[in-house]
Structure formats: structure tokens, C-alpha cells
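INTERNAL AUDIT FORM
Audit reference: QA-55
Scope: verify that the stored structure record matches its stored sequence.
Auditor: D.O.
Record contents follow.
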Amino acid sequence: MNTAGQMRLELDAVLADPAFARSPVQAKLLRYLVERAIAGDGPPTQFEIAVDALGKSPDFDLVSDSYPRVQISRLRHNLDHYYLRNRPVGEGRLRIDTGGYAIRLAPFDDPPSDRPAEAEPAAPSGAPADGRIGFARLPTPARRIAAFAGLIALVLGAGLLAAAVFVEGSQSEATARTDAPIIALEPDLRGLDNAPGEWRALAGQAVRQAEMMLAFSRAARVSPQAGRGEADYVLDLRFESGPRGGLQAFVVLSDRNDTVLLRETVGPELEDPQIFTAGIAWAISKAIAPGGRITRIENQRIDDPLASDYACFVRLEALRGQNRSDTALLDACIERHPTGEYTPFLLARRALRAYQTDVIEGRAVVPSGRAWQDVKAALSIDPENPYANFVCAKVAIAQGNCDAAGSNLRIAADQSIGHPTLLAAVASEARSCPDPPEGTGLSPGELRAMIAATPAPSAPHHLNMLMAALASGELDAARMLLVRPIPGQSNTHDIHAIKLLRRAMTDPSFLDANEQRIRQELGLFNWGGGAVDRLIENLRACTVSQCSRQAQARGS
């Protein structure tokens, strides 16, 4: 087969992968580069990529907009991780060399691009508009958590996760961090040498799931070439037979000094493989989610939160996990890093806060003003950013346009695997639509698993899970939250909403007397009236069923 045929064969295989199937921008860019290489037109310029492949207008400004550089770097990263999981179907893999924009067939054993080299040339001041020059280097994006087929279904089951053991690593040797740390995955299946074949296959599936989650973590970057002693963090994933049968896994996060930072036991599982892989997914999420273990440790190592967009992201997520905020820092971060890899998250956070202020002060949520400009700016940097798509969907729903919100909600849900707080918020918001978009909700098992895996959720996570459960009518899941502690002693809006909902669940007279007050408080979080209507209706069903009696039995 000639080179053109091999490239097309490989292109079809890559595009069929769920990570690319759920990323239309990346798929379109990959197809453009392959077809250009086959046509023999030579390496594309950055301007041609922006206009011909990414749909930018001909007056696109190369100097001020890093979008094509970010997308090319992201595509290189995604191809590297695709070939970590898959062998080529032909004689070579698709590869974009560091510092260039052309794609070629390369030997499969070519080492993947490592993080320090992942950069693109940046246009100097006065660069010509045709883009026919070299450009400065930017770090490789690692912003997506892969949403391959069926991964949402893995968020199932309850009671599988043992209590996490958190051990603070020594900070005496910690150095100031401005970029995401390196994480390495070390699976160990030796404990299954004599186990049934289906157990080994299930363990292999769990390892591939872990590879995908780490490859697109926002908290750390995976490096295929880094191992224990070289990476900043190591995630050990060990499998063995349970003491009474069944498959068991141990998930351990350690630092480069082998100090254990998190330990989770999953299983033993005897019957349902999805419950087992779900347990592993939740354990990994505790390490790599925004506000997770790695982010909390990295926050302690940041001397100057303005040093990079990553440092900004880590500090602001850490504050959010403490139910705190810093508006001045958020503004300064966006001003200092207007097109950074993590900037879309910051822009979406600021937009959400501005819109919530509008709600508090009685103004309508509309697609205009500074908040809307922030949403558009975030999506122009990263069209698949889950935070920005979530806020965009909320604005559309507030306008009564569920059709327009559907695609944004689906993107937000797909890209939120490993981030349960946002996933629950998406599920709650989707209930504002008469027919929630497919793939944006959480099943009863998913909700119960999420709650069971989080014995002490943060205030935002607690509220999002509670609202998602009540809005979808999953009263069993909502009741589980009655025995969860309410975090902190402050009386912020989300904590106030949690207290109102929990009291309304157990006291019908309180709901009758305070319905308008509850609606007003929930309107700050669910801008579409439909979700609040459903929630109130289901609250009434809860108060006349078992909520009150179960709460009394549990001592709530």
C-alpha cells in the first residue's frame, strides 16, 4: 500500500477512537493535516491552519490569538496518547514533529513528544499577517479528561471505596511550581498470574481507563518516559484476588520520595465489572480532579499564584475547595495570562460569578456584557472547555433556548469525567429542559455511587449532588446526603441552600412556609425555572414519603 493509502487507513482508525470522536475540532484539524500531506502541498502555515482548518476569519490576528498553536500542540499530545493505547493498523503512526505543523507517517517506536518540548513558535511583534514565519513556544495542553465511550457508565455502584488515607508530603524539599507536575502510572497485575482470564481482562480495561484519565488530567501531566523517582507523582494501580474471592484493586498516590499521599481499596467485586471499574475511576478522581489531592499539594508549593496560568488555576481551585474566593486574584490572572492553557477555566469562573451577581441583584441573565464576553473568549481559546460550555448552556437555558444549550451541555458532560462536582452541576442544569439532552444526566446508580464515594463533600459538590438528585426525582440518592456533614461554619449561598433543602426534605411544614424563599435561593444556581420546578415537586414527594422518618432514624 502506498503512503497515501496508509495515511488514510491510519486516519480512519484514529478518528474512530472515542477521544477523537468526541472532539470535532481536533478531528477536523487532523483530517485537514492528513489530506494536505497526501496532496503534497507542503507544511501548512499557522494562518492556513487557523482559516482553512479551524474556521477563523481571514482577518484573524496571529499576534494576539494563540488558538491555532494551542490546537496543534493539543493534537500532537492527543496523538501521542492515542498511540500509547493503540498500535497502528498499518506500518506507521501519524506524527506531528515538535515545532512544526506538518503530519507524517513515523515508525511506531518513535518516542512520544515529552512535555518540555511541547511548544510552538510565537509570533513576534509586527509579524506578517500571512503567518509565514516561525512562532515562540508554549507548553503542551493537557486540559481534557478523555470521555471515551461508556466512561460515564463507569460512574456506578456504592460502597466500594475504603476511606482515603491522606498523608502530607514533606514540604521542605518542595520547589516553587509554575507548570503542571509530571505523573506516572505504574500498573501491577502480577497478583493475577493465576486468576481467571476474565479478571486479567478486566484489570487491563481498568489500566486503560486510568491511562486515559491521567493523559487528560488538568492537575498533572502524564509522561510515558517518566517513572518512579523521575515523576513528581506516581499512581500505583495494583490488582490481586480478594481474600474471599473476587477481584480487588489498590490505588496509591505517592510523591517522588515514595511518601503515600492517598490510598484507596476497591472491591473485592464478585459480580459486576462496571462497579469495579467505576470504583477505580472514582479513586483516581480523588487524586487528579480540580481541587483533588494533587491540586491541594501543588497549592502549598506555589510562591506566586500569578507566575503562570497553571499556578492561578491551582490557587483558585484550592480556595474554591475551602468555600472561599479571590476576585482580585482572578482578574489579575486573566490579565496576566489572557490566552493561557488554563485561562478558559478562569474566564468561565469569572463569568459564572458575574451572572450570579446579576441574579442576586435582580437582573436578567442575558448573552451580553462582560460576562458573556468572558464566555466567548474562553470558547475561542478552547471550544471544548467544560466550564465555559456549562456557563454558555446556562445562559441559553435562562433565555428559554434548550435546543441551543443541548450541545454545550453534552460537551460539558463529556469533558467532566473525573470532575464529579461539575458533572453533578451539569446533570442538575439539564433538568431545566423539558427533555434533558441525552448524555447529560446521571442514573440512580451513578448518583448513589458519587455520594457514597464522597463522605465529606465540599459545599459546591454537596449542593450540586443534592440538586441533581432532587431535580431528577432520585429520592434515595438525596436521602443519602442527609447524613453527610455540611462543610464549614460559614453561611455562604451554597451552604445556606444546602440547609434549606435538607430541612425541607424532613419538614413538610417548612417547605410550605418557605417555598418562595427556597426558589429564590436555588435560582442563584439553576437559572432555568424548569429545574427548580421539578425540584420543588420532588421535594414534596420526599416530605410525604420516607425522608423525614429516615432522617430521624439516622439521627440527622
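Auditor finding: record pair retrieved intact. The two ends are 69 Å apart (CA to CA).
Action required: none
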